[in-house]
């Protein structure tokens, strides 16, 4: 065995030629001394650096490059990590959602007609964390091709509301337009009919043979703002105008609604205020912010403020700036444009526009949690426990338990309007599957949801 003497020099420690097969060491390098059965090699002053470099290169090329995987160690390391991650994912990430209902009848209806709420939700294994799901969804999900028919309707104050219709005239199951079921869709805070989550719900409705109409909030879809008024989660006057218009246009067609994020908040507030006085057969809301105080507090944490709050604030300001000529007559737009958070934007603009004494008064009125007890039609709510926009501790579990017309589905993961699933989540999400099954159940099995109280 040829060994290298341990000397203080790092280069000497690399000379382990016994690991290199069929390599002979020049005698001019070494002087030997025998001590028992051990041979110790000492590097001579005539050390040839070029030869050392050549031999080290040979060692690296023939031993080190195969040492990690060729020896099986690297493969075992990767395999072990994969097994550990898989175990963690299956035990801690992939879980059945929690289903809560104020009555056994609604709960049983969901189990019979919406089996997705009883199945294990497997979020995309490489992006299951809430913030990542929230950030990636707009980029990874495809946008189905949808051709809309736009309609502008007048509001009571002289403003106009933009509706985008998908008529689904080729519906094989509902060929008669007068009785074709209609689904009203409400986008989020700055969303329009072109959002991927809206397009996917239109696609799901098309497959069911239903008609869709998207309610675009004032000033966000390219239409001219005729009066100095936009929108907020608390005010449901425009939504009532839209629902009345749809009902008059298609009086014989069953109508239900689905709202996402702020659209869900607006829908829940509307249903709470109207009680039995609505023509909607039912509703479903996704990722709604139930307590606005808790939502804004969550979004003002440093990381979430950086990732979401500042961006949404800039989007709101951009919308205001587009309509500056009509808005600056009533509001200090320069002051609004200096807002750094959604809360500051609402203090300087939204709460003032809708006549609230303080921003806290506006937030209290905008929080659907206070109106759930008076909802009188079937309303299904889907939230993720890791949604930073609507934190898990603010989800209205106890309020839902008090009203037999309500049901709540809580997934452990999914983020805000995320709910991605599958290896590469380009197509429909868990949220889309919940929407499709519940919409079909309400339209086609709605008689079973009568007299839930």
Features:
9-stranded mixed beta sheet, single chain, 40% helix, phospholipase A1 activity, signal-anchor, 12 strands, phospholipase A2 activity, alpha/beta, disordered N terminus, globular, 2 domains, 3-stranded mixed beta sheet, ABHD4, 453 residues, 16 helices, Rossmann fold, serine esterase, 14% strand
Brief overview:
The active site is at 261 (charge relay system), 387 (charge relay system), 416 (charge relay system). The chain is an alpha/beta fold and 453 residues long.
Describe, in plain words, how this protein is organized in 3D.
By secondary structure, the chain is of the alpha/beta class. It is globular. The strands form two sheets. The protein has a nine-stranded mixed beta sheet with strand order 4-12-11-10-9-7-8-6-5, sandwiched between helices. Strands 1-3-2 form a three-stranded mixed beta sheet, with no helix packed on it. The protein has helices at residues 10-13, 49-67, 73-93, 104-113, 130-140, 196-208, 237-249, 262-274, 292-299, 302-322, 324-327, 333-336, 342-353, 359-366, 397-401, 430-445; strands at 3-4, 30-35, 38-43, 98-101, 149-154, 160-166, 182-186, 211-216, 255-260, 283-286, 379-384, 406-411. The protein is 40% helix and 14% strand. The chain has 16 helices and twelve strands. The protein has two domains: 3-67, no CATH class; 99-291 and 367-449, Rossmann fold, CATH 3.40.50.1820. It starts with a strand and ends in an 8-residue tail after the last helix. Mean pLDDT is 87; it is low at 1-47.
